[in-house]
Automatic annotation (TrEMBL):
A biological-process GO annotation: proteolysis
Molecular functions per Gene Ontology: peptidase activity
PROSITE patterns in alphabetical order: PROKAR_LIPOPROTEIN (PS51257)
Stated name of the protein: Proline iminopeptidase-family hydrolase
Swiss-Prot/TrEMBL keywords: Hydrolase, Signal
A single cellular component GO annotation: membrane
Length: 356
């Protein structure tokens, strides 16, 4: 005898199937519409160039142009990326393409004055914190970013610049992200001397220190020692032959004049005549009232515990810890890094940001 389902159960089955299909169809249509909106550049000032723009800035030494490139559209979540160095390039951020678009977050690549696609004047008086802060403010205005949508993310030196910007212009910010940067260069130097240095083979460290003492930074031996003993352990924890193309290009395009003037020639902290060597904003962090995320990594050149402490100094702070990461945790602990950034941005956007 055949098993025959009751008519009412058959009808219910097809009814539910219809509802599910309708629901799936609606969700798919909504998702498609969101994707189209995100990718729609029509009517934008940068439509012709696919999101790229040159922005004119005024400086004490005249007018120059800096380069930016927008990716995506989102009226309430727009992230301006401040690269490291000083004198680095936007290229190190290219991995953001793998994560932020699918989250619907708009973001901007940006080469600071003196870097890569931007103008590169030779006047060394331009390379100081205050002037860079005013540059960021002019870029913000040109891009029409404001407190309803403007997130500022600074990595390494960009973290110093982002901190300085927030201390002067936080009323323009919706959220702040300080990635892999402490608030005190003296603390950075102390960590390099007392923690990172002793982790090295004593003979290797002695030879590195000897080269530095002689100011013989162009000696090929210096980088021969640093690459396997420092860079691949604390800058980017991958074998050098596996370093991602954007990172290699960034290092290749680094403006060494700016880097040495502000950071100094040593890779063990900031030494000599580096203009940033006394920079310390640790006591000023409580003045930054906007929601702020600090990011630290276990193997960083910076102390992860210090970066965790920083998050407790902001009235609305949060810490993101990357257990497998180094200074460029966006590559060597990528999923942790981006999951934390996306959650922070969306929590701030929804009003759900809580201190952790």
């Amino acid at each position: 005898m055949k098993n025959i389902l009751p008519c009412w159960l058959v009808c219910l089955f097809f009814l539910l199937q219809g509802c599910t299909s309708s629901s799936d169809s609606t969700a798919s249509e909504n998702s498609t519409a969101q994707t189209i909106d995100y990718l729609d550049y029509s009517g934008k000032p940068d439509e012709l160039s696919g999101g790229a723009r040159r922005i004119k800035i005024n400086t004490p030494k005249g007018e120059f142009y800096v380069w930016t490139k927008r990716v995506g559209n989102n009226p309430t979540m727009k992230v301006l990326l401040l690269h490291g160095g000083p004198g680095g390039t936007h290229e190190a951020f290219e991995c953001f393409d793998s994560y932020l678009p699918k989250e619907g977050i708009e973001y901007y690549y940006y080469d600071q004055l003196g870097s890569h696609y931007s103008d590169q004047p030779n006047d060394t008086s331009l390379w100081n914190n205050a002037r860079f802060v005013e540059e960021v403010e002019q870029v913000r205005k040109a891009l029409n970013l404001d407190k309803t949508n403007f997130y500022l993310l600074g990595h390494s030196w960009g973290g110093i610049l982002a901190t300085e910007y927030a201390l002067k212009y936080q009323d323009n910010l919706k959220g702040l992200i300080i990635s892999n940067m402490v608030a005190s260069v003296p603390a950075y130097n102390k960590y390099a001397d007392e923690v990172l240095g002793p982790q090295m083979d004593p003979k290797v460290l002695a030879e590195i220190k000897q080269i530095e003492a002689k100011n013989d930074f162009t000696n090929p031996r210096y980088m021969e020692l640093l690459m396997p003993n420092f860079y691949t352990k604390h800058a980017l924890r991958m074998p050098l032959e596996e370093w991602p193309d954007p990172v290699l290009r960034m290092f290749n395009h680094m403006n060494q004049t700016i880097y040495v003037q502000m950071q100094g020639p040593s890779e063990f902290g900031l030494r000599g005549n580096a203009s940033l060597k006394n920079w310390d904003r640790s006591k000023d962090l409580p003045k930054i009232k906007v929601p702020t995320l600090t990011i630290g990594a276990q193997h960083d050149t910076m102390d992860p515990k210090y970066m965790e402490w920083m998050s407790t100094q902001f009235p609305s702070g949060r810490y993101l810890y990357c257990p497998n990461g180094s200074h460029m945790a966006m590559y060597d602990d990528q999923k942790t890094y981006f999951a934390g950034i996306v959650k922070f941005i969306k929590d701030v956007d929804s009003g759900a940001m809580t201190k952790k």
